[in-house]
Amino acid sequence: MSLKAASDNSLYDPLELGHALTDDIPKQLSLCAERHYHIFDEPEFCIVLIVAKDPMLHNIRRHKFYAYPYLPSPRPGQSVYLYHKATGNCKRLWSLPEAKTMAIISEMPIVDAKWQCTKYWCDAFFNHTFWEAIRAQHQIRLLSETEFLNANRAELIKAGCNETDIPSPDPFDFSKSL
Questions:
Q1: Of 78, 101, 102, 135, which is most buried, counting CB atoms within 10 Å of its CB?
Q2: Which has more pLDDT, 170 or 60?
Q3: pLDDT bucket at 63, cuts 50 / 70 / 90
Q4: Mean pLDDT of the chain, nearest integer
């Protein structure tokens, strides 16, 4: 199937292709929200969409959805939405493109109006001010992943997530094997 798709010489309308790639996203966001509605005992939680490439099939993109009770750590190819249980509404918090595109957009002094939000997010990512920027932009106080885990450390350990003092393994030094 991958070879067949790669050998397809048809010309496709980019707008039509874009719609085809994103048409099911609202449905998948709703499905993910339904699955996590009773799991998280919070009035709102984050739904994450990761656009992943298949390591074997280079012309395949996969959309992976999952949810967190906190703001997930930002990464390239990620979109994050805030789901409000009371209203059932989903609001996009940020969308980050692939890493190379992030770097290009961040280095540009001026971008077209449709890229201004993306530039804002990319600049905040590279300036290490991401959480402050997202909270100010959306007027939210949701904790980041690290803040949430630190704030709930005692409860998590009590629930069975024990901390260990096991040192990390030493990486193999190939220069010593010669």
A1: 102
A2: 60
A3: confident
A4: 86
The torsion of the CA quartet 11, 52, 147, 122, rounded to 10 degrees, works out to: -30
Q: Under 8 Å CB-to-CB from 19, ≥6 apart: which residues?
A: none
Residues 6+ apart with CB under 8 A from 13: none
Q: Which amino acid is at 86?
A: A
Residue 83: pLDDT over 70: yes
Q: Can you tell me the distance from the alpha carbon of 71 to that of 132, in angstroms, rounded to the nearest whole number? A: 12
Indicate the DSSP class of residue 69.
S
Say how far apart CA 34 and CA 51 lie, in whole Å.
Answer: 21
Residue 84 in 3-state DSSP? strand
Q: What is the token pair recorded at 164?
A: 């260990």
Q: Token pair of 134, please?
A: 């997202």
Question: Distance between CA 106 and CA 29 in Å, rounded?
Answer: 28
